[in-house]
């Protein structure tokens, strides 16, 4: 039921994107450049922050790595084969949207790993990235639809190949402990600065 609802919501969002394809966002806005990577980061860090993950950190890292490679290969192969002109006329590499593909790759990985609660939030970020790309004149709406599809497909390729990538890892690095990641928040009462440290243990 949730899958059907999510598909409907995403479909309606892209229909709305199509009907409002003439809206504009300043080209100086860089939020889409940052947010496109947030779902992938969520896939790695939600478990150390307390969320229940389907796979351990190493498996999630391998799965993400394969998904990224798949997404990048598909996006760039199609971009430089189709050679569609961007709406702003800057280059012939508009189709499909790489930003949207990146965001949706991460969103589907989060959904598969942590369930619909976190997954829905990640998907909303993906739709937001798509809106920004069209609003900035960097993509046509159909570029973003194609990017979203590539992203979801790439995430599943990462999952499908996980048994093989994990087996290859174990053969290359036998007897090694799986890497772990931890966060440590910090606060300086003198300056009021808030920060965090990220540590990987191999």
Would you mind describing this structure in some detail?
This protein has 202 residues and is mainly alpha-helical. It is 62% helix and 9% strand. It is built from eight helices and two strands. Strands 1-2 form a two-stranded antiparallel ribbon. Strand 1 (180-188) and strand 2 (193-201) form a beta hairpin. The longest helix has 26 residues, at 57-82. The model is unreliable at 192-198 (pLDDT under 50).
How would you summarize this macromolecular structure in one to three sentences?
62% of the residues lie in helices and 9% in strands. It has 202 residues and is mainly alpha-helical.
What is Rg? 19 Å
Number of strands: 2
Summed over residues and divided by their number, the pLDDT gives a mean of 84
Strand/helix succession? HHHHHHHHEE
Report the total helices: 8
Overall form = globular
Structural class designation: mainly alpha
The strand order across the widest sheet is: 1-2
User: Cα distance, first to last residue?
Assistant: 40 Å
- Estimate what percentage of residues fall within beta strands: 5-15%
Q: What's the arrangement of secondary structure elements?
A:
Layout: H1 2-19, H2 31-35, H3 38-45, H4 57-82, H5 98-114, H6 116-135, H7 141-160, H8 162-172, E1 180-188, E2 193-201
Antiparallel strand pairs: 1-2
Helix pairs in contact: 1-6, 3-5, 4-5, 4-7, 5-6, 5-7, 6-7
């Amino acid at each position: 039921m949730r899958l059907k609802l999510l598909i409907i919501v995403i479909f309606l969002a892209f229909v709305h994107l199509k009907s409002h394809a003439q809206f504009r966002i300043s080209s100086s806005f860089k939020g889409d450049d940052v947010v496109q990577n947030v779902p992938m980061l969520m896939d790695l860090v939600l478990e150390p922050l307390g969320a229940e993950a389907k796979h351990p950190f190493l498996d999630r890292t391998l799965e993400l790595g394969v998904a990224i490679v798949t997404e990048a290969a598909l996006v760039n192969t199609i971009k430089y084969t189709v050679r569609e002109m961007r709406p702003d006329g800057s280059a012939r590499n508009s189709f499909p949207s790489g930003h949207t593909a990146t965001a949706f790759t991460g969103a589907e990985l989060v959904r598969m790993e942590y369930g619909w609660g976190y997954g829905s939030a990640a998907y909303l970020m993906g739709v937001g990235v798509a809106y920004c790309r069209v609003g900035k004149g960097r993509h046509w709406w159909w570029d973003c639809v194609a990017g979203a599809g590539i992203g979801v497909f790439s995430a599943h390729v990462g999952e499908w190949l996980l048994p093989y990538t994990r087996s290859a890892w174990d053969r290359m690095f036998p007897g090694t402990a799986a890497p772990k990641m931890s966060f440590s928040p910090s606060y300086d009462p003198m300056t009021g600065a808030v920060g965090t440290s990220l540590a990987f243990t191999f």
